[in-house]
Amino acid sequence: MDVFSDLIRGVRAHGSLFGSSALSPPWALHFVDGAPLTLCTVLTGAGWIVPEDRPPEPLRARETVVVRGPATFTFVDEVGTRAEPVACGEHCATPEQGGTRHRLGWNDRGGDGDGRGPTTLIVGAYPVHGEISRRLLDALPVVLRADADGTGDAVLDHLAAEVAVDTPGQQVVLDRLLDWMLVCTLREWFDRPGGEPPAWWAAQRDPVVGEALRLLHAEPAAPWTVAALAECTGVSRSTLAKRFADLVGEPPLTYLTRWRMALAADLLVEREAATVAAIARTVGYSDPFGFSAAFKRVRGANPSEFRRTAAPASARPVRRPADGGRPAEVPDPRPG
């Protein structure tokens, strides 16, 4: 398990959080849910992404942007458009709400409007929960973009083909394609020339530190020592310690402790019936008191306090999509 795979594993497109719109100008779609991550891809045409308190970003055919919440944003045909914003969130826009066709997993080719032709927008909103995925969110800007002709270009061909038809299983296919697109977009952004990716991203490619990171993520509960990691990676203890700290920004065991505490924080919320001692054993602590002390040092509260104040995912309200489909969990408005 590499670091990126671990951090993104809880980020998944989910049924009713998908929309496809074929838009004829003028238009203005206001995405009001403030989802932790929203992926927007234009298949045909062009428009502008207008985040709150940020400069507008052009979005042309076969380009993708990812917007990080909780702030909302608008997709418009042009900056200063005369169109009245249509709220897109709990219920998708309908033709009666200004003429924009926007429905879950459904494509409308739209009209010719002013001769520029329709713009086809694909949107996937991601409800990102838990402390594990927070590390990924913390590494992202409010808006990041992937230009056309990148590694996600093949995904766009599949998306274009899928939204043009209405077949059984379409929603599942679209969800997975959006997940694929998100991974491609993030990888391209982290690898962009002159970029500043998080330390763990670059460190994964180091033959020594990358292997150490994979070991820590594959077996976080193992009784790791610097000496044991050094033996597994084929270098001396001092070499590993220095190289890891230089590339990751902290010593190996400090990294491991923070990773264990992130895992424990999510387990405390997800496994309401599990005791603190059981959670401690799961993340590599035989002594619950030692675990509690480490958790409070890293998280600022002991495990029991954290569990009481953290809102469990099961307690979040659900909403029913406008088309009468199955309910979906409301995205957490807090990042992460």
Automatic annotation (TrEMBL):
Q: Where is the HTH araC/xylS-type domain?
A: 210-309
Residues of the region (Disordered) are 93-113, 301-336
Pfam families in the cross-refs: Cupin_6, HTH_18
Known PROSITE patterns for this protein?
A: HTH_ARAC_FAMILY_1 (PS00041), HTH_ARAC_FAMILY_2 (PS01124)
Keywords attached to this entry: DNA-binding, Transcription, Transcription regulation
Q: Which PANTHER family match?
A: HTH-TYPE TRANSCRIPTIONAL ACTIVATOR RHAS, HTH-TYPE TRANSCRIPTIONAL ACTIVATOR RHAS-RELATED
Protein name from the UniProt record: AraC family transcriptional regulator
**Source organism of this protein record:** Streptomonospora arabica
